[in-house]
Design a protein that fits this description.
alpha+beta, five-stranded antiparallel β-sheet, 2 helices, globular
Length: 137
């Protein structure tokens, strides 16, 4: 099965701006990582689960309800915090623009709330925290 939910475990947050069309957006807090059924190997920041068709026998702990489930309409913008698991699907012909920016130093010191049961994911989080902000001006 192709991974359906991604978590960007990098030192950025994102603002998703829907320019044309509509998109279904499903968000899960970073603190729910232990319930997301990470993919093994290089795709460790993706989930094995399709939130629109959860196989409850294979993935019994996957959240029945996301923390946010919405339709992003043309002209709307949505903030996706660092570490948040997200699933996004176009509902019709759509185009969006993403604005990425580095986390602030205070976030790297623990305010981002990234709890993680995955050893590899937690290691990435620790590396990011140790590295501090990506771009300093």
């Amino acid at each position: 099965m192709e991974p359906k939910v991604e978590s960007k475990k990098r030192a950025e947050s994102v603002a998703l701006d829907e320019v044309v069309g509509r998109k279904l957006v499903c968000l899960y807090q970073a603190t729910r990582s232990s319930e997301m059924y990470r993919t093994e190997g290089t795709l460790f920041n993706t989930s094995q689960v399709d939130p629109e068709g959860v196989d409850r026998e294979r993935f019994p702990d996957f959240p029945a309800v996301p923390d946010l489930w919405t339709v992003l309409d043309e002209g709307e913008m949505l903030f996706i915090p660092y570490g948040c698991w997200h699933y996004i699907r176009a509902l019709d012909n759509a185009f969006s623009v993403s604005f990425w920016w580095a986390r602030r130093e205070w976030e790297a010191k623990g305010s981002a709330g990234v709890a993680d049961s995955s050893t590899k994911g937690a290691a990435v989080d620790r590396e990011l925290a140790a590295a501090g902000p990506k771009n300093e001006s």
